[in-house]
């Protein structure tokens, strides 16, 4: 999922326009729903996908397509529950393009019916393998933002992203990308950083720039099998190094040209704006998941009976989001932090990241440390001086890209900032 699907801060930083203040007369602050109209059904069989196994939780004859009644109820409920005048629908899976263009034509019709004068936009996360000219025309006509999953060059991508016959998917993804470019459809790249491609940060980043990517999201792969870290999971130190080495290139040549989600979100934290991305926010609970059967869960990573907070046929989103269960879920992110994290110098930037990854122990033996702590701590400490300068530039009314002229082979020269103020 590209961050523009969720994160307004990245857009605000790059356009340097003020944050829009929600209408306080409305009942609910902004929230986000990740809708999965196909459930876990996908035409690929990526080795690392945690979601495909959900298919086994349903009967063999189960239909993995949201019904028309549930779809209409979702669209009506979501629009009515949002506080703002601009509403984004995010469609994910599984693979949502399996439903075909006709399904999304129904989506557009229903959104128009219930829009109530609000501006509606759509985003879709896809593996890109099913995109064709018909999809291209539809996505362009209705201004869809597309998140395209791509893990790097052919060898890096095909390491884990294969189809049901274990055949590679890279060429098909690139054909999908060609459709997006042909129809000039705005897209983000979502790259899962796994144990293999984490060893090649410059190669991954250069490849993405070479194919015309301007918005990139890096998602660290962390998975457990039988209580042990899976072989494909990225190592904490490798992930930190991956981000640092890409950041080094970005600050020299690409500020204002290429937008990397974690860099933009970090800048917001250094500016004191807080994180609009749940990973690095103090609390969570505003990004919920809708399954194809109408059930709603606290988070995409917690689709379990214990974390079901309602059903769209019986509850409004307002009821589910303000339920005691969901409030406690969101607050637990902060209250469960180990003391080791509370004293950390980069807590303001990390906030312990996602609770699902907090299965390590601190040096003192306290449970609840994020598995990726070593990598994040190295990365956030490394970028600190650069972020301070970019934050100062923006607060002074100057573009963050001015930092590039201050960077030297060994870092940056803050005296250049002082001299340019005169």
UniProtKB/TrEMBL annotation:
Any matching Pfam family: Radical_SAM
Entry keyword annotation includes Ribosomal protein: no
Domain Radical SAM core positions: 25-252
Record-level Gene Ontology MF annotations: 4 iron, 4 sulfur cluster binding; metal ion binding; oxidoreductase activity
Keywords of this entry: 4Fe-4S, Iron, Iron-sulfur, Metal-binding, S-adenosyl-L-methionine
Cofactor(s) for this UniProt protein: [4Fe-4S] cluster
InterPro entries: 4Fe4S-binding_SPASM_dom, Aldolase_TIM, Anaerob_Ser_sulfatase-maturase, rSAM, rSAM_sf, SPASM_anSME, Sulphatase_maturase_rSAM
NCBIfam families named in the record: rSAM_more_4Fe4S (TIGR04085), sulfatase_rSAM (TIGR03942)
Similarity comment: Belongs to the radical SAM superfamily. Anaerobic sulfatase-maturating enzyme family.
Name the UniProt record assigns to this protein: Anaerobic sulfatase maturase
Natural source organism: Synechococcus elongatus PCC 11801
